[in-house]
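In the previous chapter we treated chains in isolation. Here, by contrast, the input contains two separate entities that must be folded as one system, with a combined length of 711 residues.
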Amino acid sequence: MPAFTPPPLPSDDKRWKIVNGTMRKNGFARHALIETLHTVQSSFGYLDDDAIRFVARSLRVPLSQAYGVVTFYHYFSLKPPGKHTVTVCAGTACYIKGADQLIEAAEKRLGIAQGQTTKDGNISLMTARCVGACSRAPVVLCDGEVAGEASGEQVLEQLERWTVE
Amino acid sequence: MTIEELEQIAESVRLENAKYDYEVHVCMDLACASQGADRLRDDLVKAAEASGKKVLVRRTGCMGPCSSGPLVRVDPEETLYAHVNAKHAEAIVSSLGGKPVPELQCDLNDHFEKQVRVVLENAGHIDPEKIDEYIACDGYKALMIALMEMTPNGVIHRITESRLRGRGGGGYPTGLKWSTVAKASGDQKYVVCNGDEGDPGAFMDRSVMEGDPHRVIEGMAIAAYAVGASKGFIYVRAEYPVAVARLTTAIREARRRGLLGSNIGGTTFSFDVEIRLGAGAFVCGEETALLASIEGRRGTPKPRPPYPAVSGLWGKPTLINNVETYANIAPIVRNGGKWFADMGSERSKGTKVFALTGKIKNTGLVEVPMGIKLREIIEEIGGGVPDGHTFKAVQTGGPSGGCIPAEMLDVGVSYDALMAMGSIMGSGGMIVMDDTSCMVNVARFFIEFCMTESCGKCIPCRAGTAQLHTLLTRICNGTATMDDLELVEDLCSTVKEASLCGLGQTAPNPVLSTLKYFRNEYIEHIVNKRCPAGVCAMKSQVEVPA
């Protein structure tokens, strides 16, 4: 049987080299699927069809299996994120301290539901299962920056700043 | 690396520290970091340099009382400062050698008095990114003792003697699990650390991995020696980027010091660890699902037996323990099994770390001996419910646990006692609720969580949690009947009995425990269309179908 040759990189975008690096580090083993998808998402911000195809072919994983993994895990996103992301933690401690009101306020202001991005691609509104900062509940992440004991006004102010930009 | 070499490293750290007159520790855990602990540390360093005093500024892991953060502790006086920010840096440095800064001092004696620190002994004292500081606190000594002076069976015997039980929530005797893996035949065995802390409201494991990562690695290495494994995986949530970074650094440092890799300590024992990232699936906390995820597949559980101890990763015998379980190993090996078994209650030994959150004055991480009363944790260590509200319930065990009412607070914390109350120990989240929380709504919240997180493999869990969610939503918005309540109870027992894995089997617990202790709230919603806590919005009577 001829030795397996991994498929060529989808484009000369340098980020594919990083993705390839993860697979090479793992000897192109099938079990590196999730690790590789993490690298794709951290490099490109999300997973598109081309990326999933490329990874599946490189690791010799059936496309159905790769797609199954992508859609199973909440962390992976098939849609590009907005320029900014506000993530409201919806863990128990945050919920007890009124995280649902924060989500509601943000949904109303942006006119989108949680998990969606505004039409202009500016702001994504996400919820998290728990970021582990429960002692400062309710917690909001603005572009990854943790803000504890957040209030509705604070969230709206932040959204305002992003909208004006 | 030998015990003598470890001693030499420890000695050089002590000599280095002795060059300073004062040590200023800055808590850099998530809660403090989110309030500017980074800048605070930078400003402390600058102020220290400008003052000409011999001050060592050290970043540390979680000190515990997060609600008082950002926290700073000055040694050797052990003065604890609360709510510190960058503009206080100069005042703190100029106070060194004199009187402490009065406006920053805090009195948390009640908070600390009843705590016993085993797992968290180094947290708040060492820089988590410096292996030598861990070594200076007896780090890796237990591993060397095990390798040089003990047989694998001797190690297992010591763990068995300690009567340590799994800290992930199940409470399975750790020694027994280890000996099963040790006895399993196979040339290749694996050791896995479950750091997929999916319980919302729990962050003990994150703090341990971030604040004292070498403790976890040392525990895993000892376990690998005991069961005969040469390869380990730490499965960490991707939502914990700092923990991943700290563990990556720790593994690299341990390899550099020859504490991971081939022929550790000049013996024939070889062991190395890799990190695997979770991807946001609560079910991956279940051991067979976690193993599937490490193998790069969807995290769906498998029926047991065979248990992972016999057939785990890639079909090989695999030992899986939780972060906190591994964190207990080194002190047990160093101090003996009896030392550990002397702490705690009759059937639950040692200490347990809890993440105390919700409607409570002192939120944060606490470590208490098993057997301590819930009331002591909540009222004394936690400082009680603030703002004049009254305590209603404490939720333990996350989505698999239950709500414990005020009248049960005098029960001592142990695996069995919590189980008897309809809750579970779980990984250690403790969420306090006051009179402004609606118990039906809380039950609905957890069922919604389990519904979303159900992997969909077995029907009782997949369909049952969805139906329970529909029924509970109806109760919450005042459109349910008493028949619906009966249906809820019936469905709970089906889901509990018939689900494949722990997720489904325990999913009804939040509903069952609130029904047991707060049934009147359910009835109030159904019969009087009223939410006693004022949380649930009732649909107007007109919309209610006849």
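The domain at 84-164 of chain A is CATH 3.40.30.10 (Glutaredoxin). The first strand of chain A starts at residue 84 and ends at 89. Compare these points with the single-chain example from earlier in the chapter.
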